[in-house]
Amino acid sequence: MKHMNSEVKEERTSNKKRIDLFLVPIVLIAAFLNLFKIWTDEYANAYYTAAVKSMLQSFHNFFYASFDPGGYVTIDKPPVVFWIQTISAKIFGFYGWSVILPQALAGIGSVLLLYVLVKRTFGVWAGRFAALAMALTPIVPAVSRTNNIDSMLVFTLLVATWMLFRAVRTAKFGWVLAAFAMIGVAFNMKMLQAYMVLPAFYVFYVVATKITWKKKIAFLTTATALMLAVSVSWAVVVDSTSADKRPYMGSSQTNSVLELAFGYNGINRLTGNTSVTGSGHKQPAQTEQQTASSETKQTSNSSADSSQSSNQRKSSSSQKMQAPGGGNQNGMFNTGNPGPFRLFQKGLSDQISWLLPFVIFSIVGLFAGVKFKGPYTTKQKESLFWLAWLLPVAVFFSIAGFFHQYYLIMLAPPIAAFAGAGAVALWSMYKQHNGWKSWLLPGGILTTAALQVYIMSPYVSSIGVAPIAGVGALGVILALVLAVRKQRKNSLTNYLGAAAMVVLLAMPAYWAMTPIIYGGNSMLPSAGPDSSSGMGGPPSTATNSKQSGFNGMQPPGSSSGNSSSNNQMQPPSGSSNGGQMPGGSSNNGQMQPPSGSSNNSQMPNSSSSKSSSSKRKSGGMNAEVNQKLLNYLTKNNTGEKYLFATTDSTSAAPYIIKTGKPVMAMGGFSGSDPILTVSKLKAMIKKGEVKYFYLSGMGKGGQSDVITWIKDNSKEIPSSKWQPTSSSAQQGPSGNGTLYEITLK
Questions:
Q1: Among 295-309, 461-475, 720-734, the least confident range
Q2: What are the CA-CA distances from residue 297 to residues 330, 523, 538, 589 (Å)?
Q3: Are strands 282-283 and 645-646 parallel, antiparallel or unpaired?
Q4: Which of 77, 279, 294, 298 has a CA-to-CA distance to 417 between 20 and 30 Å?
Q5: Rounded Cα distance, 65 and 43, in Å
Q6: pLDDT value at position 267?
Q7: Of the candidates 732, 541, 743, which has an alpha carbon nearest to the alpha carbon of residue 629?
Q8: Average pLDDT of the chain?
């Protein structure tokens, strides 16, 4: 801390030609949080992993990001990240860790990029603190340890930021074009989410460049045109290709990439209308990846649940999903209820908001004395950039109708940047006795410690009272001592300042480690003592506190296999019984394998249930295979293109991963895509492309006619031929799912 008072220029000169030794442990921390034990995740997000398996098989599947090897339907996102994952799987082999690796490296890369971006202007200590804050922001490693897109998206946007900063420093238009083109690349990762940083790019370029307004408008217009061209390049190619020569665009209702971009992955996120029936009538949001896992409440985490009261279990299993802002205390999927303080509510605050009060005090200090008309210093210009990134994104998440907790990684870079730059600025003001500004440092420490106590309080049964009381007490004491010692300049004051920063980062660091300690959920990543549930909020029912956290007992998601067998989630539904999911669910609301397979079902690349149990098999979507069903289908396949057809990707993904054979998800991801008609299905059957259909429960969306026709024109295969006989076999929505065979002449 004592080096903070050095001039930025001196620090930059002294560190220019040598490795920053303080950065090395920060990078090692980021590497540990992002990489350690990713090899235990066999399926990762099974929906996306199945796509990688399919993309490895042909350039056609690779280009379109086909979910299945048969090229029937694509996944619900653009292909760039999955191209990278497929290349990784081609180089290292097809494993869960090989599709996760690019995102883990992107998480580490984001830490390094933030260091570079902040250090150049605010000084080396600011860069160090910013990098450390980024590494320890809980949602960052939680997402980076999966094959979801967001970690790579943030890394790409930070690369674009580096290009923009360079464009301003060098006054070269080429870097402006490169920066906006990179946002176009990011659009082809997660569509409109990439555009959330555009206000920051426009504001910064206008304020920071010393050229005429005419040139500013011309340059920004040209760069924006290039960005839009790059953004829609893949979409135009796909949408202009005949529908019969490419897969159906998954999760769209009109088989269009542009509709997917601006509808399902665009404005519908704000309104919450992400579930669309086959008839085109929008319904309240149910899921992005609806079956996706089962993005809902989790039942008990381990066998210790037997000690719970029956009332607690009943309350947990009977909870229904509410529309965003509805009656559920934690909002939909624990994203809180819309409002100005949403980011401080349960389920979101512990993912991203640990340092927000300190950031607010930092913003006040960094912009103190700034005049609207300028002139602005480089620090003030770049602070404006981070503020223009932070505020619009924070507003979106405060009012959006539908999103997942892991989307909050979009807030991590500006929060970390302000934490680093603010720590140095507030320390300097404090040491210089700069009037009212000298109180910002102790004030920021005190309020941040108070928020962290609030964030941790719902987890007292999991982590115990000691860490909560410790953070609160130390935060108050250090803030008060710093306030009292304002007039003194000695090494003790420096150590007190450093100790305060350690205290404020201690619990975020623990939270960032929870996906390693407790296990994570690859479909819906989040951090916290219940991270394996993917819900990221305090447990809805209290389990035995000895199971987890600081009490040292075995946490959910550990190698015992509890994460795959017991940490199951109820499907989103408004029905009185909690709703049924494709693939089946038992009476206690747990998600089960699509075919009713037992807990001992084989996993891909596993020789026995014993060997596979050491792997984390959450996969997010019933990532188990009924080996007896698979054997029956394989034996009786007479040349059909598809091994079998089923309503949605939940049932199909594990079989694609295991066999690499085409499995038809008739209604796309959630089963609601209007892909198939009865006439199309008849034609496919007559051509000998498919004859087996696995159905569990009612069809969804526009599939009802297809499902009815299948049932009326098929013969049911006796369950004894394909169902496991073990007493542990799981039950489906109406007993077991049903296997049908249709042969038309």
A1: 295-309
A2: 11, 14, 11, 9
A3: unpaired
A4: 77
A5: 18
A6: 83
A7: 732
A8: 81
**C-alpha neighbours within 13 Å on the C-beta side of residue 40:** 22
Q: Degrees (nearest 5) of the Cα angle 590, 397, 368?
A: 145
Backbone phi and psi for residue 282, each to the nearest 5 degrees, phi listed first = -75, 145
Q: Beta strand pairing status for 692-695 and 645-646?
A: parallel
Helical spans, DSSP H, in 636-728: 649-659, 678-686, 704-712
Encoding tokens for residue 233? 């390049």
Comparing CA positions, the residue from 145, 110, 136 lying closest to residue 452 is: 136
Which residues make Cβ contacts (< 8 Å) with residue 528, sequence separation at least 6?
A: 138, 350, 351, 459, 511, 514, 536, 537, 538
Percent of all residues in the chain with a pLDDT value above 70, rounded to a whole number: 74
The torsion region of residue 50 among left (phi > 0), alpha (psi -120 to 50) and beta comes to alpha
CB 700 within 8 A of CB 671: yes
Q: Which of 545, 405, 403 is nearest to 461 (CA)?
A: 545
Q: Which of 698, 55, 125 is nearest to 428 (CA)?
A: 125
Q: What is the DSSP string of 531-595?
A: GGGT--S--SSPPPGGGSGGG-SPPTTSTTTHHHHT--BPPP--STT----TT-B-TT--B--TT
694, containing H or E segment: strand 692-695
Q: Give the tens place of pLDDT for each residue, 274-311.
A: 554 433 334 444 434 443 443 333 333 333 333 333 34
Confidence band for 31, pLDDT divided at 50, 70 and 90 = very high
Tell which wins on pLDDT, 425 or 612: 425
The radius of gyration of the chain from alpha carbons, rounded to an integer in Å, stands at: 26
pTM: 0.83
Long-range contacts of residues 88-96, Cβ cutoff 8 Å, at least 24 apart = 89/52, 89/56, 90/56, 94/52, 94/53, 94/56, 95/39, 95/42, 95/605, 96/38, 96/39, 96/41, 96/42, 96/43, 96/44, 96/49, 96/615
ω before 375 within 30° of 0 (cis)? yes
User: Alpha-carbon dihedral of residues 131, 133, 138, 143, nearest 10 degrees?
Assistant: -20
Beta-bridge partner residues of 66: 74
- Which residues, 6+ apart, have CB-to-CB distance to 470 below 8 Å? none
User: Which residues is 742 bridged to in the sheet?
Assistant: none
Dump pLDDT digits (tens) for 435-457.
899 999 999 999 999 999 999 99
pLDDT of residue 728: 43
Residue 523 has pLDDT above 60, yes or no: yes
3-state secondary structure of 695: strand
Q: What angle do CA 157, 162, 168 make, to 5 degrees?
A: 125
CA proximity to 169, closest of 210, 201, 200, 128: 210
- Tell which residue, 703, 694, 702, 608, has the closest CA to residue 651: 694
Q: What are phi and psi of 661, to 5 degrees?
A: -95, 155
CA quadruple 88, 94, 98, 100: dihedral positive or negative? positive
pLDDT at 567: 35
Q: Is 450 exposed, middle or buried (0-12, 13-18, 19+ CB in 10 A)?
A: middle
Query: 618 near 532, Cβ under 8 Å?
Result: yes
Distance CA(580)–CA(697), nearest Å, equals 7
Give the whole-angstrom CA distance, residue 277 versus residue 119. Answer: 50
Return d(Cα 706, Cα 383) in angstroms, integer: 56
Residue at 433: amino acid letter? H
The span from the CA of 141 to the CA of 197, in Å, is 21
Check pLDDT > 90 for residue 107.
yes
Could you identify the residue written with the tokens 């504001």? 203
Tokens of residue 678, six digits: 């009865």
AA identity, residue 694 = Y
* 363 against 490, higher pLDDT: 363
Distance CA 329, CA 192 (A): 29
Confidence of residue 535 (pLDDT cuts 50, 70, 90): low
Amino acid at 143: V
| Highest mean pLDDT out of 309-323, 338-352, 530-544 | 338-352
Helix (H/G/I), strand (E/B), else coil: 739:
strand
* Six token digits for residue 32: 């540990």
**Spatial separation of the C-alpha atoms in residues 564 and 619, rounded to whole Å:** 8
